[in-house]
Give the backbone structure.
Amino acid sequence: MDRVDLRNFSYDDLTAFVCNELGEKPYRARQIYEWLYLHHVTGFEDMTNLSKPLRAKLVERCRIDPLEPAKIEKSKDGAEKLQFVLEDGSAVEAVLMPNDGRVSLCLSTQAGCAMGCAFCFTGSLKLERNLTCAEIVEQFRSVTRYIDGRFPRITNVVLMGMGEPLANLDNVVTACSIFMHEHSYNLSARKVIVSTCGLIPQITEFAARSEAVLAVSLNATTDEVRSQIMPVNRRYPLADLVATLEVFPKARRKRLLLEYVMLGGVNSSAEDARRLCKIARRVGCKVNLIPYNAHPASGFEAPSMENVLAFQRIMIDAGLETFIRQSRGQDISGACGMLGKRAGD
Ligand code: SAH
Ligand code: SF4
């Protein structure tokens, strides 16, 4: 019999498992959650407030095998990239970004990615598989063990590493519920961000099932350009994507964010900025500009700083909250769109 991985359970599912399968009282679920997500233990024998027979049952029927980083690279800007090799040999990466008082962690949700965006290194790798919920939350647990008190705790989690989170919807929804649960990390919904390339049905489903923030990678303002750089646009074109975001309930739209990768000479003109203003105003949300991070798998060019600032100026003058995402970990291939194993890694 396969042992049950307890990190795949939401709190309610763990409570049901503890009661129905292990014949224990519901409060045991809280104790187990606290051992897993407040104390980050890696074995059942460490769960010292559980009875001996319960611990024996857990050892026999359940698992919480830890993942430890196989490789750690440190950027001169303070970001660190941690590589994890999973049981089947696939490798994924997480990026830790300490930033006075705020500590952000970027996690992977798939090994590789099937979406094939032209500007993204992960997109050149092809999809190996979805990560389990346990593998997503274990990245968080493992990085917390690695930090070992050197920084304050992780304050923000972004599912923007390798993969398309909404192509792995169930596991991502459960992982977010664990990050936000009061007996676990207790992160507020504003501090948990899931980024998607724009899978329309899954966007609506995610909104119904999770309180976390949704960041949508728009990346172009015309179908012509978007379809060239993001094959997903041929299935879910811009007008439909924008219409989906527009009909989000108002309260939900506060939890929405547009991301816009700026590629020099491709999608970064003043005209693009004006079209992006219209879209952002219709959707009613903030915009994050992400200057392209160059890597050998694609031939785009980063826009000049003047180009980025002029683009942002047009947006701000139109009354739209627009931020430039500070690129972290470029020198260790840890920035947006650079994750994935290279030949020789
Ligand atoms: N698959 C999801 C999340 C992972 S990519 C998505 O596409 O949204 C996270 C962000 O990095 C996305 O906004 C994506 O457009 C951006 N990105 C990808 N490659 C990039 C690159 N080379 N430079 C800058 N941003 C990039
Ligand atoms: Fe996949 Fe996102 Fe990269 Fe596109 S940008 S290939 S969806 S990880």
About this structure: The mean pLDDT is 95. The two ends are 36 Å apart (CA to CA).
